[in-house]
Write a structure and sequence with these properties.
Strand content: under 5%
Helix content: over 70%
Structural class: mainly alpha
Radius of gyration: 20 Å
Order of helices and strands: HHHHH
Shape: elongated
Length: 179
């Protein structure tokens, strides 16, 4: 189990680095958006390519950042019951959700999105907009993001099992968000 925990911590490290890229994409998106607005209103010109790169970066922000949100335990959950659980009960609920919901859905999404990515790449599919970009880089974010979520889900399962076995410390405190 210690080897799996080491692998889990390695997955965490990788997803943290990729999450940093998502953070940089937030900054780039804001700068590009401001630049697009400036150029459009001051010089009355625009570029579909620059507009589309914002969308691509947004896809990267969401898909690459999601696994970090899961790692930080800041993901959305239905907490009608969860917030009232005590002791190890929340850890068991997390395990159930990770094993029976997160992993199967993420693996299905990787399976369904991969052929679309391959098709777009092989066909070198382009945007219909004049001056638009190739589409496969944006589509790459789907299987990549879902794959990273699978890895992080596996990591979270390992950490919770190790916590229950007493060989890993976790903060199991949960505070219901203020609505």
């Amino acid at each position: 189990m210690k080897a799996l925990l080491k692998l889990s911590l390695g997955i965490d490290w990788i997803n943290e680095r990729i999450g940093w890229l998502a953070s940089v994409a937030v900054l780039l998106t804001a700068l590009i958006s401001a630049g697009n607005a400036f150029v459009r209103y001051i010089f009355d010109i625009s570029s579909n390519g620059w507009l589309e790169i914002q969308w691509y970066l947004f896809a990267g922000i969401v898909m690459l950042g999601a696994s970090v949100v899961l790692k930080l335990n800041e993901h959305v959950r239905v907490d009608l019951i969860y917030g009232k659980l005590k002791g190890n009960a929340p850890v068991y609920v997390d395990l159930f959700g990770l094993i029976f919901f997160l992993l199967p859905v993420m693996m299905l999404m990787v399976y369904l999105s991969w052929p679309l990515l391959v098709k777009m790449y092989v066909m070198n599919e382009m945007s219909n907009n004049a001056g638009g970009l190739v589409r496969w880089p944006a589509m790459l974010m789907l299987p990549l993001g879902f794959g990273l979520m699978c890895l992080q889900g596996f990591s979270e399962i390992v950490k919770r099992i190790c916590y229950l076995m007493g060989i890993h410390q976790m903060d199991t405190h949960y505070e219901k968000p203020v609505q």
